[in-house]
Write a structure and sequence with these properties.
With about 140 residues, the chain is an alpha+beta fold. It has 4 helices and 8 strands, in the order ααββββββαββα. It has one domain: Aspartate Aminotransferase, domain 1. The two termini are about 25 Å apart.
């Protein structure tokens, strides 16, 4: 039997979480991203765990038997970076979008951005849409 996921959806207020984010510029970027993600996805923001803001949800099951729930896309306004959680693979669309996004650092399953003005929001919109499409294809409901 696999361990339960460490992060799940909560009933906590997304607005209250963003209101306590420091520094002030990161908080302002968090407010902007909250609305931006809602507008692009059509999903309401949900706080997952203590610091992840997720949009939509899907159930996954791996060949290993591990399964759980996750959000399609999301972000976390952390002290040093905005962290964007997107389902980007090594496909041509993901790679093309990443080359035009702007200034960022790529992690294993996320993108780190210093400030929103460092990236192109039209490209981010396309990345969000592509991520959701990819996950809905892999994990149809």
């Amino acid at each position: 039997m696999s361990d339960p996921p460490k992060t799940g959806p909560t009933e906590q207020s997304v607005d209250a979480f963003i209101a306590q984010v420091e520094p002030p510029q990161r908080q302002a970027d968090g407010i902007t991203l909250r609305q931006f993600f809602e507008d692009v996805t059509g999903y309401e923001a949900v706080l997952w765990g203590s610091s992840l803001i997720g949009y939509g949800a899907y159930h996954y099951r791996y060949a290993s038997g591990r399964e759980g729930d996750s959000f399609y896309v999301g972000f976390s306004p952390r002290k040093t970076n905005l962290v964007l959680y997107l389902a980007l693979g090594e496909d041509d669309i993901s790679e093309r979008l990443l080359t035009t996004l702007g200034t960022y650092r790529r992690g294993k399953s996320c993108i780190y951005v210093k400030k929103l003005t460092d990236i192109d929001l039209d490209v981010l919109r396309a990345m969000i849409e592509h991520s959701i499409h990819t996950l809905k294809t892999i994990y149809p409901s």
